[in-house]
């Protein structure tokens, strides 16, 4: 399918920070995708968790499986809208590269530890990974991705950090946060696909863990109730895992088609002539319908209250926070415990945060036990 006029066209990319000759067989966004897949940070995602810690079970989602699911959903929707699928996949695979071990607990701990040193934002850390921390090439640090890929990776950014990035890279990937502009449609779609994916798989993982039940979801979440009852109307004898999977499958399909239909209507109304018009539109042009947005928001509120704040999850979160807080204090007080390339950096607090953020769950636990003699899990 040809690219729509408002898609990011790799032949019209704003380019890379360090110019490189074009590849003979791949587009610029295909090259970006391949660089992400071969990066060290991407491989580490297999042992970084979403809600449940890595040692709690082999079937729970990790950051890697989540990223693959986001890429699949994004490509499916993007194909119907005439967007560049390779750019969507690149952003989806890279969007969690800066996530800490132990999910959002790690993000919160590092931000607290770094309050006096510039703070910590996992989206900004993802950009830092692809711009600086990956060291694979002789001519530059980072992966030297295109502007459009980097723009999509930087999903959120505080104004303070946007100003710092803009000072270092005028009219760069942070400029839109200062101008009130939007990213390209491929980045907008990756954000939506991320939301669809984590809502669905947190239902799956929550029920599998025993912390949630389908009956509880049916009673409290209209979106789940609708598709569960649809599944039972067609397959009255369905129970257990098959009923769970069929409910989630129907919900995912409905959300995908809803995004396609609502976004087509929005694009027709806005009629952006090109990707620059998309950026200047003043609002995202890819969206859920009003009804589906309400249903998705209700589901998120339920998951926050009933899963993410479940006492068992919170108890493990507290121990995970202790692991990372104590690691940060140890490294900051005794840099000799850090690898030499981190210990020798001028900004020691940031080096400590970079090292901890790059850890997998199991490496963080192993390192904490080595340095403290404690086994918290």
UniProtKB/TrEMBL annotation:
KW Hydrolase (keyword) present: yes
Keywords: Hydrolase
InterPro entries: dGTPase, dGTPase-like, dNTPase_2, HD/PDEase_dom, HD_domain, PHydrolase_assoc_dom
Family the entry assigns: Belongs to the dGTPase family. Type 2 subfamily.
Domain HD stretches: 63-199
UniProt-listed NCBIfam families: dGTP_triPase, PRK01286.1-1
Name recorded for this polypeptide: Deoxyguanosinetriphosphate triphosphohydrolase-like protein
Molecular function GO labels: dGTPase activity
GO biological process terms held by the UniProt record: dGTP catabolic process
Entry-linked PROSITE patterns: HD
Pfam families in the cross-refs: HD, HD_assoc
PANTHER family (alphabetical): DEOXYGUANOSINETRIPHOSPHATE TRIPHOSPHOHYDROLASE-LIKE PROTEIN, DEOXYNUCLEOSIDE TRIPHOSPHATE TRIPHOSPHOHYDROLASE
Membrane-crossing segments per the record: none
Region (Disordered): 9-30
